[in-house]
Amino acid sequence: MHQSIYSIVPVTFRLDLKDPFIFKAHHIDHFPEGNAELGPQYPAVNQEYHMYYGETVPGFPQHPHTGFETITLVEQGVIDHFDSLGNAGRYAAGDVQWLSTGNGVEHCEMFPLIHQDRANPLELFQIWFNSSSTQKQQDPDYKMLWREDIPHVYLEDTQGSIADIRVVAGQFNQTVALACPTHSWAASDENHVNIFLIQITAHSSVTIPATTATSTRFAYFYQGSELKLFDQSLQSKHLIELQPDVAVSLTAGDQEARILWLEGEPIGEPVAMRGPFVMNTQQELDEAFGRYRATQFGNWPWSSAAPTFKREQPRFSTYNGGEREEFPQES
User: Which of 16, 176, 200, 239 has the largest count of CB atoms under 10 Å?
Assistant: First the structure.
């Protein structure tokens, strides 16, 4: 095994990671046509999809978080977001939501099945990304990184084939990502946090430059027939932990390869985690749960624990109690 590969782990749904990342989940659901209530027209067969905690519409109704960030990258499907700050929105394939939960927020993430005449596949990644002790005390905040704005880097190899690198966080070569929330570990350049979605055409190669020797570095190969790293040949649905200060060559097999790339400097603080709360000590967890019981992290301003928008609602987001971004309706 080449010295730059530390470990290779098969992935089914969720995998625990290392500081500053907590874990990543990869949701893939083959939802059928939607019904009049934005739910599935027929029950799941052989677990082709999950309702998660939703009853009518699949998804995750009202629930609390504190002390970390959720970074949600959507590859297929639609998500409706509501939170206790009064913000809401609908985002979809190609968009990224970056939520800093800070000192506490409630939100819901529902997956409305907006198409009644065809299937509604859903695929997304959710990364739980830790916060420093100082950032855990800040007010919650979030940003939408819309697909129209996320920068791409297109690379050609010696045969003229193309690799597409979506720069979700950090930078690749000279291309810099959109800004993330202010009180994020990723907001400081010195923390070298990079999140990329990489697509490599069949039989083509791309090289990811080295980062700092102290960084954590992972590659999740999630789609394709084969991926070659140095002398290793991998099948899809495998996570690779990599030595960070070595450039890494990635070569696709007979099909296009898709990789989620994660790297960054560790925060280096103790981690105490209990359900949806991530603090530094057990005492802080007890205090956070006590604060949640007393305050509910603000009043839930929505009419239900699992609200959704109307079928025809375009992609949009609201901020700060009224600022609004909206996109035209798509077919």
Answer: 200
- pLDDT score, position 326: 87
Give the Cα separation of 82 and 302 in Å (integer). Answer: 8
Is the distance from CB of 74 to CB of 91 less than 8 angstroms? yes
The pLDDT, as a whole number, for residue 158 is 74
Residue-level pLDDT at 11 = 74
Which phi and psi angles does 97 have, rounded to 5°? -110, 130
- 251's enclosing H/E stretch is strand 248-252
Same domain, 166 and 260: yes
Phi/psi at 131 (nearest 5 deg)? -120, 155
Give the number of domains in the chain: 2
* Residues 104 and 142 placed together within one structural domain of the fold: yes
Sequence-separated (6 or more) residues with CB below 8 Å from residue 38:
56, 57, 112, 113, 114, 308, 311
Q: Is residue 298 part of a domain?
A: no
Listed as ranges, residues in the chain with pLDDT below 50 are 1-2
Of 150, 69, 146, 140, which is closest to residue 316 (Cα–Cα)? 146
Q: Give the integer Cα–Cα distance in Å for 231 and 227.
A: 11
Q: Taking the model in full, what pTM does it have? A: 0.95
CA gap 320, 316 in Å, rounded: 14
From CA 122, how far away is CA 74, in angstroms rounded?
Answer: 8
Beta bridge partners of 255: none
Residue 193 resides in a domain: yes
pLDDT tens profile 67-99: 999 999 999 999 999 999 999 999 999 999 999
Number of helices (H) and strands (E) in the chain: give both, helices first: 1, 27
Q: What's the domain range around 67?
A: 21-149
Please tell me whether residues 145 and 156 are part of one structural domain: no
Return the pLDDT at 1.
Answer: 42
Distance CA 209, CA 248 (A): 7
Residue 64 and residue 281: Cα distance in Å, rounded?
18
Residues 121 and 178 reside in one and the same domain: no
User: Which segments of the chain does DSSP mark as H helices, in order?
Assistant: 282-295
Residue 199 lies in a domain: yes
Do the beta carbons of residue 201 and residue 161 sit within 8 Å?
yes
